[in-house]
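Quick log. Single chain, no ligands specified.
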Amino acid sequence: MNFFKKWMITIRLPFLTAAAVPVIFGIALAWQMTGRFDFLLGLITLLGVCFAQAGTNMANDYYDHKTTDDDINENPTPFSGGSRVIQEKIQTPGTVIRGALFFFGLAALCGLYLWLATRNRYEHAYTIPLLAIIGFLSGFLYTATPVKLGYRGLGELFIGLNFGALSVLGSYYVQTGQLGWTPIIASIPIAFLIAAVVYINQYPDYEADKAVDKKHWVVRLGKKNAIGGYLFLIYGSYIATAVAVILGYIPVLTLLVLLSLPLAINATRTLLAHYDKVEELIPANAATIKIHLTYGLLLAVGVVVDRIV
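-> predicted structure:
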């Protein structure tokens, strides 16, 4: 396996849409509300958040190996069970954790650049380093001892926070220098959906996670009872957007997100029918990622078109 392919697997490149979607939406929302758009600042923001997610992915792989969670997992899928680079001897554990720190370092450099580039022209100059510190700590401590947020039923909360409110608000602030409730409220559906991605991907890992005392909500509630949590996150995102439109925080055109509803319905049907069958559930795992990506991009398109027309 060549060097490039090895590291694309290690950082889980296809899953970096979790970082890209909220940044793209935050930039689009900033332009819709203020007319401001700085390409370089937007690009550095996007790279920084993607680097942070890559670091988080690798840190999670390392610590899930240390707890033997991924090692004893007999049901890995393309969407769960980690990247498997340690288990398949593609990378050593030491290389993975050093890689995590390297990508966190790249993210920190991006954050430093953004802070230096904006601190003299924006108020609240503490915003960028504060958001970066919160993002790093919650990302690294998702599975790192002794905190292990993902083992305590707090994983979805912090994933939603990092790749919802923090990423949208941070991207919005970098472009505008402004803080406010609009980017936070507008980010709620994106936060719900990325939490839903993590949530449904815990189903195939149920047995291994339960064995190592990883008490996320699917383990706490059981596979069947946990379905309600998925329904809340998926359909709550549509309700959150509708409420934000009614309250005037985002334009009516953001209701374009309803075009993604068939994906949500299909994913729901699959989960209801196959919640206890790993292979049969895979289409729902894939569909949930597609919902997050499609929904987020439709939100961005909605605010951009509103600005144009």
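DSSP finds twelve helices and no strands in the chain.
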